[in-house]
Design a protein that fits this description.
InterPro entries: HupE_UreJ. Helix content is 74%, strand content 0%. With 209 residues, it is mainly alpha-helical. Helix 2 packs parallel to helix 7. The protein starts with a helix and ends with a helix.
Length: 209
């Protein structure tokens, strides 16, 4: 029994070790994942590649999406559709009401803090419905990075976001029950605690730097 618990704890720690490594250098992937110059110079292909790569290389967003596996959502396909819809809605809204430069550190801090909120969702202190506004906020910041682009690369960027986020959401929700079964209740608690710690740490970094 004790050996079984140790295995689950090690498996749980191993899953989050990857997340910690991804979050080691947050500033390195603060904007576009490729050296593209100004957003107004993006080609259609660059917009598509940026849309696919940006959410996967941004550590706070990637961790947020991967940790959805620990929530154990019911009706995962419906959740995927809803999360993608609010995420793309947030990205579209960023084109209508861009984020002022003065508020950017606070927005980044709030996005990082969403990891802590997700940890509370995993612990069932908050409803899963909190994922919707948090995902919309992530989408808003992802959309803010391409303000000024021409309509064609802008559309291809949104298409890239749809592909990347849709595929990742389908994967994490599809393996969710297996992951939860593997790590057990103690593993969920441990992972939620680590997630909260990462979120608070990232928020402090965003405000300081």
């Amino acid at each position: 029994m004790r050996l079984h618990l140790i295995r689950k704890t090690l498996a749980s720690s191993g899953i989050f070790l990857l997340l910690l490594l991804l979050g080691h250098n947050k500033s390195a992937f603060a904007h576009h994942p490729f050296e593209m110059g100004g957003t107004s110079q993006l080609s259609t292909l660059q917009g598509l590649l940026s849309g696919i790569g940006h959410p996967l290389l941004g550590p706070d967003h990637l961790i947020f999406m991967l940790a959805i596996a620990f929530v154990g959502l019911r009706k995962p396909k419906k959740w995927c559709l809803n999360l993608i819809a609010v995420g793309l809605g947030g990205s579209a809204f960023s084109q209508v009401l861009p984020l002022p430069d003065l508020l950017e550190p606070w927005a980044e801090a709030l996005v990082s803090l969403s990891l802590a909120i997700e940890g509370l969702i995993i612990l069932k202190y908050l409803s899963s419905q909190w994922l919707l506004p948090m995902f919309s906020l992530h989408g808003y910041l992802l959309g803010s990075t391409i303000i000024g682009a021409e309509p064609t690369p802008l559309i291809s960027y949104f298409l890239g976001l749809l592909i990347a986020q849709g595929a990742l959401l389908l994967i994490v929700t599809g393996v969710s029950q297996r992951v939860i079964s593997l790590i057990g209740e103690n593993g969920k608690i441990l992972n939620a605690g680590i997630l909260i710690g990462i979120g608070v740490a990232f928020s402090c970094v965003a405000l300081v730097y």
